[in-house]
C-alpha cells in the first residue's frame, strides 16, 4: 500500500471513487463548490485500487481540506492521509489547515479533535444553502440526525508567533 500525490492520470479513477462515495464528485460547502477530481491531494492505494483519498485547496495561506475519505475504517488510512497533508502544508509554509463537516458527522468531529483540530466556527443553515446547488445532499445523515449546519475545524500547523 502506498500514498501518492494525485496526478492528472488519476482523474477518471477519482471521479469514479467520488461517485461511489458521494453520488457525484462535486463538494459544496460554505467556502465554495469544488470538483474534487480537479483538486490537489493524495491517494492511498493498494494494487491500483483507491482505499483512501484526501483533497484540498489553498487560499490566503490557509489549506482547506475539501474531502477525506477512507473505504476501510479503523486502519489508519485517514490518519496517514491527514498527516501527509499536514506535512505538505508545513513544507509550503502554510500556517493553518481547516476542514468543514456537517453537524451529523460525529465520527469526523471526534477524529479531527483527536488530531488537534478545534471547532472555530459554526455556520447555521449552511447545508440548506448547499442543497440549492447540490440536490443530492440528504435531509438526514448519520444516526438519522437532520443535516443543517456546518462546523469549521482548524489547526495551526506553523506557529505564527515566532
Task: Characterize the largest beta sheet: strand count, sense, and whether it forms a barrel.
Answer: 7 strands, mixed
Low-confidence stretches: none
Oligomeric composition of the shown chains: single chain
Task: Give the SSE string.
Answer: EHEEEEEHEHEHE
* SS element count, helices: 4
What is the helix fraction of residues, given as a range? 25-40%
How many strands in all?
9
Measured by DSSP, the beta-strand proportion falls in: 35-45%
- Radius of gyration, rounded? 15 Å
> What is the architecture at the second tier of CATH?
3-Layer(aba) Sandwich
Largest beta sheet: strand ordering: 1-4-5-6-7-9-8
Quote the distance from N terminus to C terminus.
Answer: 38 Å
| Number of structural domains | 1
Q: Helix/strand-derived class?
A: alpha+beta
Which word captures the global form? globular
CATH topology-level name: Aminopeptidase
Averaged pLDDT: 92
CATH superfamily: Gcn5-related N-acetyltransferase (GNAT)
CATH class designation? Alpha Beta
Domain N-acetyltransferase: 1-138
InterPro entries: Acyl_CoA_acyltransferase, GNAT_dom
Pfam family, one: Acetyltransf_1
Protein name: N-acetyltransferase
Describe the protein:
It is a single chain. It is built from four helices and nine strands. The protein has 162 residues and is of the alpha+beta class. The chain has a single domain (2-156), classed as Aminopeptidase. A seven-stranded mixed beta sheet has the order 1-4-5-6-7-9-8, with helices on both faces. The protein is globular and about 35 Å long. The N and C termini lie far apart (38 Å). The mean pLDDT is 92.
